[in-house]
Amino acid sequence: MSRRSGILEFAVLGLLREAPMHGYELRKRLNTSLGIFRAFSYGTLYPCLKTLVASGWLIEEPGSAPEEAVAASLAGRRAKIVYRLTAEGKEHFEELLSHTGPDAWEDEHFAARFAFFGQTEREVRMRVLEGRRSRLEERLEKMRASLARTRERLDDYTLELQRHGMESVEREVRWLNELIESERAGRDQRSGTDAPEGAAQQNRESGETGGLPRHGGSTRPDPSDDTAK
């Protein structure tokens, strides 16, 4: 499985955990809610759905009344199919949510993971954010070293492009610092009270974001912004 197909499967499972959908709804949500999938087609989505069904993580259900499905068949049209997450699919998605390794820090995968932080345990969110920050700090150090070596050989426009790339990475690092501090503040606040048993699960179900900072009118970098790569 390629990295991109793995990200798509993760995103599909995450969206279907929220509610059953048919293919058109899924594609719309992937395009509008998850910017990293803006350009993908049904030719990419449906093989992914078939794989998830074959794995036992999704089931297909009629998306309309039986008589409407018959009418669609007689007219040569494909009846709508609704995809629903199975118990095994939910368990698999929970397992994927708990992963915090290097893949979760990369550009496209991080964007998909961040989109489902509302369903993710706070400690896992922290590890993913800190890993992403570490990865970007390494990238920034390499960019600075490369610029220092080649500055004299670059024309003004290429030099400005290099600076723009560095500024994009620096902006995301600042954003991550803010998120991490907010998560820590939320964790410290919760640790001072007796949280009811099962509170973490309730947070995931309700989409509560815990320590996510709220800034009216502030601008945050898009984790999938190509300029931050």
UniProtKB/TrEMBL annotation:
<keyword id="KW-0175">Coiled coil</keyword>
<dbReference type="Pfam" id="PF03551">
    <property type="entry name" value="PadR"/>
</dbReference>
<dbReference type="InterPro" id="IPR052509">
    <property type="entry name" value="Metal_resp_DNA-bind_regulator"/>
</dbReference>
<dbReference type="InterPro" id="IPR005149">
    <property type="entry name" value="Tscrpt_reg_PadR_N"/>
</dbReference>
<protein>
    <submittedName>
        <fullName>Helix-turn-helix transcriptional regulator</fullName>
    </submittedName>
</protein>
<feature type="compositionally biased region" description="Basic and acidic residues">
    <location>
        <begin position="182"/>
        <end position="191"/>
    </location>
</feature>
<dbReference type="InterPro" id="IPR036388">
    <property type="entry name" value="WH-like_DNA-bd_sf"/>
</dbReference>
<feature type="coiled-coil region">
    <location>
        <begin position="126"/>
        <end position="167"/>
    </location>
</feature>
<feature type="domain" description="Transcription regulator PadR N-terminal">
    <location>
        <begin position="12"/>
        <end position="95"/>
    </location>
</feature>
<feature type="region of interest" description="Disordered">
    <location>
        <begin position="182"/>
        <end position="229"/>
    </location>
</feature>
<dbReference type="InterPro" id="IPR036390">
    <property type="entry name" value="WH_DNA-bd_sf"/>
</dbReference>
